[in-house]
Amino acid sequence: MPSSWGKIFRVSTFGESHGDSVGVVIDGVPGGLQFNLTEIQKDLTRRRPGQNLLTTPRKEDDEVRVVSGIFEGRTIGSPITLIVDNKNHLSKDYENLRHIYRPSHADYTYHAKYGHRSHVGGARASVRETIGRVAAGAFARCILEEELGIQTIAWVDSIGDVFANITDNLPKSHEEVDANDVRCPHPEFAEKMIEKIKEVRKIGDSIGGTIRAVVRNVPPGLGDPVYDKLDGDLGRAILSIPACKGFEIGSGFEGTKYTGSTHNDEFYLEAETGRIRTRTNRSGGMQGGISNGEEILIRAAFKPTATIAKFQNTVNDTPEDVQMKAGGRHDPCVLPRAVPIVEAAINLVLVDAYFYQRALQPEWLATWKRK
């Protein structure tokens, strides 16, 4: 089962939702880098379950511990292992599902592929698997902020039919996004989103939505042609998040409505800095799969949570038609907790692209910083 990502900054996640622990091994990190465990814990706390009434009632502290690769607060060049223990899983809640395939869940496909599966929680298909990604992504964020000044901010842009559609005055900080439980920086629409989630939760249902993200201060030159395009890697990383079903960069599908003359981003020379810039940013910060120095603009779509508290038709592994009603504790909407996961996925891709570019052209970083 492939569970690794990256060419140089390589992460391998491990663990299941109802196992003893989950975590990540990070390889390829140079020695001597500052390692801030507080910053990593901050991102995990934003992702953890049970943080408010809009999320699953499963209570987990998600306290991270470091078991290798760090000495006196700095990396030593060996693999870094970060672990979070599962303390509040209730596997007995899933016993009635031992032989049943939950609709739109990974039960059937995992069984079809491997011939044996864990029926408790979602195993590797659970959003709990993303703890390792968020921990590694937080470390990646610190590196990108320190060495390049890159800032990644995501937010909930829609829930169901409630669309904030924030494309101007994009949020400047995580604090602005986290000002409310739904993580939408538009207070009026945030209230409507919260009511929508409460409405579906009350009837035992779930709902989906979209997340937008902006990445600022990205230097030109990250990403590689053809098979390692930066937008391709970003799409793959974000689409690998549980429940994610769609990815757009820049104008995305909306761009299909334009003509070339109205869609093209015209270049100009910025007088103050001497930098090459674009007057519009429908490309979303890159051309040819390589960053162009403009903001990276992303939108991701998430389906409704698959496990709901309603009777549904399905089949079991006999096989025969059956009805089922899921137990356990689940998010009525994954979007608020997916915000830090999307940010982590973006930062993992960018830090790997940065390390790769630096390895290919050691002089590149100095050239960019002079600008």
Question: Which secondary structure elements does this structure contain, and how are they paired or packed?
Answer:
Elements: E1 4-5, E2 10-15, E3 21-27, H1 37-47, E4 64-68, E5 70-71, E6 74-75, E7 80-85, E8 100-101, H2 107-114, H3 130-148, E9 151-159, E10 162-163, H4 174-177, H5 187-202, E11 209-216, H6 230-239, E12 244-249, H7 260-263, E13 267-269, E14 276-278, E15 286-287, E16 290-291, E17 296-302, E18 312-316, E19 321-324, H8 335-360, H9 363-370
Antiparallel strand pairs: 1-2, 2-3, 3-7, 4-7, 5-6, 8-18, 9-10, 9-11, 11-17, 12-17, 13-14, 15-16, 18-19
Describe it for me?
The structure is a single chain. The protein has 371 residues and is an alpha+beta fold. The protein has one domain: Chorismate synthase AroC (Chorismate synthase, AroC fold, 4-Layer Sandwich), CATH 3.60.150. It is built from 9 helices and 19 strands. The chain has helices spanning 37-47, 107-114, 130-148, 174-177, 187-202, 230-239, 260-263, 335-360, 363-370, and strands spanning 4-5, 10-15, 21-27, 64-68, 70-71, 74-75, 80-85, 100-101, 151-159, 162-163, 209-216, 244-249, 267-269, 276-278, 286-287, 290-291, 296-302, 312-316, 321-324. The chain has a 5-stranded antiparallel β-sheet, covered by helices on one side. The protein has a 5-stranded antiparallel β-sheet with strand order 10-9-11-17-12. The protein has a 3-stranded antiparallel β-sheet with strand order 8-18-19, with no helix packed on it. A hairpin with a 2-residue loop joins strand 5 and strand 6. It starts with a strand and ends with a helix. The model has no long low-confidence stretch (mean pLDDT 91).
